[in-house]
Write a structure and sequence with these properties.
Belongs to the AHA1 family. Strands 1, 2, 3, 4, 5, 6, 7 and 8 form an eight-stranded antiparallel β-sheet that branches. Helix 1 crosses helix 4 (132-150) and helix 2 (27-34) crosses helix 4. 26% of the residues lie in helices and 43% in strands. It has helices at 14-22, 27-34, 98-101, 132-150, and strands at residues 2-10, 42-45, 52-58, 64-75, 79-89, 92-94, 107-115, 118-127. It has one domain (2-150): 2-Layer Sandwich (Alpha-D-Glucose-1,6-Bisphosphate, Chain A, domain 4), CATH 3.30.530. The termini are far apart.
Length: 152
């Protein structure tokens, strides 16, 4: 497991960036920036600390799939931590087995630090070796889209 880090300065308040990133006011803002990972990307559940949340999309055959996760921490406008512990295959949760063991318990952390009206978003995520190239190229695109949406 490798830990990746990405940063983006956004000309907007931490509150605006946080709300845009998590889709608090409208889920569409979440779906727009995460479309860089999967055009059908969305979530089902709550961002409340301790809540289960599904990060889902559909594959080329229209089958739903994604991550089964828990909001490990959520301090509004400052920090969000997501702990991934399973996969969603259609409507079935898979929380054990060799594929899951590769990354179960991995964290995805978002920090929001505002100074003089500019918010620096820092993303730290654990990832399996096989996804390094994908995440290294895709996170930058996703954060650029978040910046565009937040600065509107």
């Amino acid at each position: 497991m490798k830990k990746l880090q990405f940063k983006k300065d956004i000309n907007a308040s931490a509150e605006k960036v946080y709300n845009t990133m998590l889709g608090i006011d409208t889920i569409e803002t979440y779906e727009q920036w995460t479309a860089e990972f999967n055009p059908t990307s969305t979530y089902e559940g709550s961002w409340e600390k301790g809540s289960k949340i599904y990060f889902v999309g559909t594959d080329e055959n229209g089958k739903k799939g994604g991550m089964v996760s828990e909001i490990a921490d959520n301090i509004p406008f400052q920090f969000v931590s997501i702990r991934h512990y399973g996969m969603l295959d259609g409507e079935n949760e898979i929380t054990e087995g060799p594929e899951i063991e590769k990354w179960a318990g991995s964290l995805e952390n978002y920090s929001f630090h505002e100074q003089n009206g500019v918010t620096t978003v820092t993303v730290e995520c654990d990832t399996a070796e096989e996804y390094l190239d994908y995440f290294n190229s895709t996170w930058d695109k996703a954060l650029n889209k978040l910046k565009e949406l937040s600065e509107k």
